[in-house]
Design brief:
With 235 residues, this protein is of the alpha/beta class. Helices cover 24% and strands 23% of the residues. It contains seven helices and 13 strands. Strands 1-2-5-6-7-8-9 form a seven-stranded mixed beta sheet. Strands 10-11-12-13 form a four-stranded mixed beta sheet. Strands 3-4 form a two-stranded antiparallel ribbon. It starts with a strand and ends in a 22-residue tail after the last helix.
Length: 235
Amino acid sequence: MRKLDENLWVNETPFTLFGADFGNRMTVIRLNDGALLIHSPTKINALTLNEVKEIGEVSFIVTPNNFHGLFAEEWRREFPDAKYYSAKKGDSGALALEDLMSEIGNEEIGILKVEGAPKVNEYALVHKKTSTLILTDLAFNIQHDVSMWSKVFFKLNGALGKFGPSKLMKTMISDQAALKQSIDRLLASDIKRIIVSHGDVVETKAKVVLKEAYSWCSSSKTTKSESKFTFSRCG
Protein backbone atom coordinates (compact mmCIF):
# COMPACT_ATOMS: atom_id res chain seq x y z
CA MET A 1 0.00 0.00 0.00
CA ARG A 2 1.22 3.47 -0.87
CA LYS A 3 -0.13 6.58 0.81
CA LEU A 4 -0.77 9.42 -1.63
CA ASP A 5 -2.45 11.92 0.65
CA GLU A 6 -4.48 12.28 3.82
CA ASN A 7 -6.96 9.37 3.96
CA LEU A 8 -5.97 8.24 0.45
CA TRP A 9 -3.93 5.14 -0.46
CA VAL A 10 -3.30 3.00 -3.53
CA ASN A 11 -2.38 -0.64 -3.93
CA GLU A 12 -0.43 -1.43 -7.09
CA THR A 13 -0.07 -4.97 -8.42
CA PRO A 14 1.18 -6.62 -11.62
CA PHE A 15 -1.53 -7.46 -14.14
CA THR A 16 -1.00 -8.90 -17.60
CA LEU A 17 -3.54 -8.84 -20.43
CA PHE A 18 -2.83 -9.87 -24.04
CA GLY A 19 0.72 -10.51 -22.81
CA ALA A 20 1.20 -6.81 -22.01
CA ASP A 21 2.05 -5.31 -18.62
CA PHE A 22 -1.06 -3.29 -17.80
CA GLY A 23 -0.50 -3.21 -14.07
CA ASN A 24 -3.47 -2.68 -11.80
CA ARG A 25 -4.24 -0.11 -9.13
CA MET A 26 -6.79 -0.13 -6.33
CA THR A 27 -7.66 3.06 -4.45
CA VAL A 28 -8.52 3.07 -0.76
CA ILE A 29 -10.34 6.07 0.73
CA ARG A 30 -10.88 6.54 4.45
CA LEU A 31 -14.07 8.51 4.98
CA ASN A 32 -14.59 11.03 7.76
CA ASP A 33 -16.23 8.43 10.00
CA GLY A 34 -13.27 6.07 9.56
CA ALA A 35 -15.00 3.68 7.16
CA LEU A 36 -12.99 2.52 4.15
CA LEU A 37 -14.07 2.59 0.53
CA ILE A 38 -12.27 0.16 -1.80
CA HIS A 39 -12.31 1.35 -5.43
CA SER A 40 -11.53 -1.11 -8.26
CA PRO A 41 -10.28 -3.99 -6.07
CA THR A 42 -6.99 -5.67 -6.93
CA LYS A 43 -6.17 -9.29 -6.19
CA ILE A 44 -5.91 -9.92 -2.47
CA ASN A 45 -2.75 -11.10 -0.78
CA ALA A 46 -1.98 -11.39 2.93
CA LEU A 47 0.19 -8.27 3.04
CA THR A 48 -2.37 -6.03 1.35
CA LEU A 49 -5.19 -7.41 3.47
CA ASN A 50 -3.30 -6.71 6.69
CA GLU A 51 -2.37 -3.20 5.55
CA VAL A 52 -5.98 -2.41 4.73
CA LYS A 53 -7.18 -3.72 8.11
CA GLU A 54 -4.62 -1.52 9.86
CA ILE A 55 -6.12 1.52 8.14
CA GLY A 56 -9.72 0.73 9.05
CA GLU A 57 -12.79 -1.39 8.40
CA VAL A 58 -13.92 -1.85 4.79
CA SER A 59 -17.51 -0.64 4.52
CA PHE A 60 -17.83 -0.07 0.76
CA ILE A 61 -16.50 -2.00 -2.23
CA VAL A 62 -16.88 -0.31 -5.62
CA THR A 63 -16.62 -1.75 -9.13
CA PRO A 64 -16.58 1.47 -11.20
CA ASN A 65 -17.16 0.11 -14.72
CA ASN A 66 -18.16 -3.04 -16.57
CA PHE A 67 -14.65 -4.52 -16.58
CA HIS A 68 -13.08 -3.92 -13.17
CA GLY A 69 -14.84 -6.48 -11.00
CA LEU A 70 -12.47 -9.41 -11.44
CA PHE A 71 -11.34 -9.43 -7.80
CA ALA A 72 -14.40 -7.94 -6.13
CA GLU A 73 -15.64 -11.29 -4.82
CA GLU A 74 -12.37 -11.88 -2.97
CA TRP A 75 -12.87 -8.65 -1.02
CA ARG A 76 -16.54 -9.34 -0.45
CA ARG A 77 -15.67 -12.69 1.15
CA GLU A 78 -13.13 -11.01 3.44
CA PHE A 79 -15.56 -8.21 4.36
CA PRO A 80 -19.07 -9.73 4.18
CA ASP A 81 -20.66 -6.76 5.94
CA ALA A 82 -19.34 -4.28 3.37
CA LYS A 83 -21.84 -2.89 0.88
CA TYR A 84 -21.01 -3.70 -2.73
CA TYR A 85 -21.72 -1.10 -5.42
CA SER A 86 -21.20 -1.96 -9.07
CA ALA A 87 -21.59 -0.16 -12.39
CA LYS A 88 -22.28 -3.47 -14.10
CA LYS A 89 -25.96 -4.26 -14.37
CA GLY A 90 -26.87 -7.69 -13.09
CA ASP A 91 -23.76 -7.98 -10.91
CA SER A 92 -24.79 -10.51 -8.28
CA GLY A 93 -25.58 -8.97 -4.91
CA ALA A 94 -24.54 -5.49 -6.02
CA LEU A 95 -26.22 -2.17 -5.33
CA ALA A 96 -26.51 0.41 -8.10
CA LEU A 97 -23.47 2.68 -8.10
CA GLU A 98 -25.73 5.70 -8.52
CA ASP A 99 -27.02 5.07 -4.99
CA LEU A 100 -23.60 5.36 -3.35
CA MET A 101 -23.94 9.14 -3.12
CA SER A 102 -27.07 8.89 -1.01
CA GLU A 103 -25.26 6.46 1.28
CA ILE A 104 -22.18 8.56 2.03
CA GLY A 105 -23.32 12.05 1.00
CA ASN A 106 -21.63 14.35 -1.51
CA GLU A 107 -19.45 16.25 0.93
CA GLU A 108 -16.59 13.74 0.65
CA ILE A 109 -16.92 12.08 -2.74
CA GLY A 110 -18.40 13.16 -6.06
CA ILE A 111 -19.58 10.53 -8.55
CA LEU A 112 -20.12 11.15 -12.24
CA LYS A 113 -21.43 8.63 -14.77
CA VAL A 114 -19.31 9.09 -17.90
CA GLU A 115 -21.72 9.22 -20.81
CA GLY A 116 -21.03 8.31 -24.41
CA ALA A 117 -19.34 4.94 -23.91
CA PRO A 118 -22.01 2.52 -22.63
CA LYS A 119 -19.92 -0.59 -23.30
CA VAL A 120 -17.46 0.64 -20.69
CA ASN A 121 -20.09 2.27 -18.45
CA GLU A 122 -17.51 4.05 -16.33
CA TYR A 123 -18.20 6.13 -13.24
CA ALA A 124 -15.57 8.70 -12.27
CA LEU A 125 -15.03 9.50 -8.59
CA VAL A 126 -13.60 12.66 -7.07
CA HIS A 127 -12.18 12.56 -3.55
CA LYS A 128 -12.94 16.14 -2.63
CA LYS A 129 -10.64 16.54 0.36
CA THR A 130 -7.56 15.77 -1.76
CA SER A 131 -8.91 17.04 -5.12
CA THR A 132 -8.24 13.62 -6.63
CA LEU A 133 -10.02 12.30 -9.70
CA ILE A 134 -10.16 8.49 -9.79
CA LEU A 135 -10.56 6.73 -13.16
CA THR A 136 -10.30 3.18 -14.45
CA ASP A 137 -10.30 2.72 -18.24
CA LEU A 138 -11.26 6.24 -19.34
CA ALA A 139 -7.53 6.98 -19.53
CA PHE A 140 -4.25 5.07 -19.36
CA ASN A 141 -0.89 6.56 -18.38
CA ILE A 142 1.56 3.84 -19.43
CA GLN A 143 5.14 5.07 -19.52
CA HIS A 144 8.23 3.34 -20.89
CA ASP A 145 9.18 1.23 -17.84
CA VAL A 146 7.49 -1.88 -19.27
CA SER A 147 8.62 -4.90 -21.26
CA MET A 148 9.49 -4.65 -24.96
CA TRP A 149 6.31 -6.46 -26.03
CA SER A 150 4.31 -4.17 -23.75
CA LYS A 151 5.87 -1.14 -25.43
CA VAL A 152 4.91 -2.52 -28.84
CA PHE A 153 1.39 -3.36 -27.67
CA PHE A 154 0.69 0.02 -26.08
CA LYS A 155 2.33 1.90 -28.96
CA LEU A 156 0.00 0.14 -31.41
CA ASN A 157 -2.89 0.89 -29.07
CA GLY A 158 -2.00 4.58 -28.90
CA ALA A 159 -1.36 4.43 -25.19
CA LEU A 160 2.41 4.54 -24.68
CA GLY A 161 4.20 7.41 -23.00
CA LYS A 162 1.15 9.61 -22.54
CA PHE A 163 -2.03 10.09 -20.56
CA GLY A 164 -5.26 9.46 -22.42
CA PRO A 165 -7.70 6.95 -23.88
CA SER A 166 -6.38 3.95 -25.76
CA LYS A 167 -7.46 3.22 -29.32
CA LEU A 168 -9.53 0.37 -27.93
CA MET A 169 -11.30 2.76 -25.56
CA LYS A 170 -12.01 5.10 -28.48
CA THR A 171 -13.71 2.31 -30.43
CA MET A 172 -16.17 1.96 -27.55
CA ILE A 173 -17.26 5.59 -27.73
CA SER A 174 -20.66 5.84 -29.38
CA ASP A 175 -21.46 9.49 -28.66
CA GLN A 176 -18.65 12.05 -28.63
CA ALA A 177 -20.93 14.91 -27.67
CA ALA A 178 -22.14 13.12 -24.54
CA LEU A 179 -18.59 12.15 -23.63
CA LYS A 180 -17.40 15.74 -24.13
CA GLN A 181 -20.09 16.95 -21.73
CA SER A 182 -18.90 14.46 -19.11
CA ILE A 183 -15.27 15.52 -19.54
CA ASP A 184 -16.31 19.17 -19.22
CA ARG A 185 -18.12 18.37 -15.97
CA LEU A 186 -14.99 16.70 -14.62
CA LEU A 187 -12.90 19.69 -15.66
CA ALA A 188 -15.28 21.93 -13.72
CA SER A 189 -14.43 20.01 -10.56
CA ASP A 190 -11.53 20.79 -8.27
CA ILE A 191 -8.94 18.34 -9.62
CA LYS A 192 -5.23 18.40 -8.77
CA ARG A 193 -4.39 14.69 -9.12
CA ILE A 194 -5.61 11.83 -11.31
CA ILE A 195 -5.43 8.19 -10.31
CA VAL A 196 -5.72 5.67 -13.14
CA SER A 197 -5.92 1.89 -12.91
CA HIS A 198 -3.28 1.31 -15.56
CA GLY A 199 -0.12 3.41 -15.59
CA ASP A 200 1.31 6.21 -13.46
CA VAL A 201 -0.63 8.52 -11.16
CA VAL A 202 -0.81 12.10 -12.49
CA GLU A 203 0.45 14.39 -9.73
CA THR A 204 0.74 17.72 -11.55
CA LYS A 205 -1.30 19.77 -14.03
CA ALA A 206 -4.15 17.29 -13.76
CA LYS A 207 -6.77 19.47 -15.46
CA VAL A 208 -4.43 20.39 -18.30
CA VAL A 209 -3.55 16.75 -18.87
CA LEU A 210 -7.21 15.67 -18.87
CA LYS A 211 -8.28 18.49 -21.19
CA GLU A 212 -5.50 17.75 -23.67
CA ALA A 213 -6.21 14.03 -23.62
CA TYR A 214 -9.77 14.62 -24.80
CA SER A 215 -9.22 17.71 -26.95
CA TRP A 216 -10.09 15.63 -30.04
CA CYS A 217 -13.54 14.93 -28.66
CA SER A 218 -16.13 17.11 -30.37
CA SER A 219 -19.03 18.70 -28.54
CA SER A 220 -21.17 18.72 -31.68
CA LYS A 221 -20.18 15.59 -33.60
CA THR A 222 -21.63 12.21 -32.75
CA THR A 223 -19.76 9.06 -33.71
CA LYS A 224 -20.76 5.45 -33.47
CA SER A 225 -17.98 2.90 -33.43
CA GLU A 226 -18.25 -0.82 -32.93
CA SER A 227 -15.35 -2.76 -31.45
CA LYS A 228 -14.46 -6.32 -32.36
CA PHE A 229 -12.51 -6.56 -29.12
CA THR A 230 -13.39 -6.58 -25.46
CA PHE A 231 -11.49 -5.84 -22.28
CA SER A 232 -13.03 -8.97 -20.76
CA ARG A 233 -12.21 -8.44 -17.08
CA CYS A 234 -9.22 -6.18 -16.64
CA GLY A 235 -8.85 -5.87 -12.92
